[in-house]
Specification:
Number of domains: 2
Number of strands: 27
Number of helices: 7
Helix content: 10-25%
Distance between the termini: 6 Å
Largest sheet: 9 strands, antiparallel
Length: 376
Amino acid sequence: MQLEHVTYTDAWSKELPTALDSEATLVFVAGAAELIDKPAPFAELRRAFPKARILGCSSAGEISGASISDHSIVAAIARFETTRLAIETAPALAGESFAAGQALAKGLVKDDLRAVLVLSDGLAVNGTELVAGLNSVLPATVIVTGGLAGDGDRFKRTWVLDGETPKSGIVSALGLYGKDLRVSHGSRGGWDKFGPERVVTKSVGNVLWELDGKPALALYKEYLGERASGLPATGLLFPLAIREAADSEKSLVRTILAVDGANQTMTFAGDIPKGHLAQLMKANFERLIGGAADAAEIANGGASDSSKPTLAIAISCVGRRLVLGERAEEELEATLAAMPKDTVQVGFYSYGELSPYAKGRCDLHNQTMTLTLLGE
């Protein structure tokens, strides 16, 4: 695999490596949300790489190496030798997330499919249902990772590339095929749970109505105190951990997308099933950075030959960036330190991360650092 990366602010950081263009070339892109209104740089990418598969979305911060930028674009260009690539796109509309996942999977599934990388609109989609749709079609042997597009802490508009065109309300998935592909993944959080664990007594999909029989939003506001006036953005600082039962070791994290003061409900990036246990979480700086390092070590441990070029796609939750503030780049330094020195790391801060919990089927996560390593 041949690998380059470039960045864009007012112009590309270097001449685009057009010699890497081929049908086996992936151009992975993350860019600022406002670029949906200024799409010229994406058209430049398509002109430079007419044969390539272009996969990209908006971000809450663009990741290049150990640096974070805003109002920019980061792009990695990876030309594979024998791995084949294909892209499918589907609508990501309210109530149709499961069907979107199924449609993407049906379009990509073949005997030698090894991995699927998914990027979705971060506001219109129900991430839990999207993943369930993918999992209902794809074999358990296929690794599924990815993330939900971001829009800083604004929660107004996100986009996903349809070819070279940024569009809201869609989800795009890249299929990678062939026996020579190296793919591995890792996902970890680092948040501390606090307060009592409560039972979800009323919910509908990703809308939480009641905890322990009490209005969910009112309870949440009690814990947030003065920060409650800043919801939903301040909710990123206090995610919710859910698990199926008291004896379940698997705990998933959910982030607030919206609140409804009239109904006292909260809408999350993924489902909050009735009967599950829920507990608030808060930040621990050192554990967040340590969690990022753990994710990289897990991912790198799955790589069969780390001496060859490796593309690391880093997708970290916007809540982590807001909490870490000026220390946010430390988690990127931690991931790079755990990987081969020549690894190219690009990615974005997201509204949700897609990855297996450890092994097995994909899940929707929030507030994690999720890494996907690709090579041959």
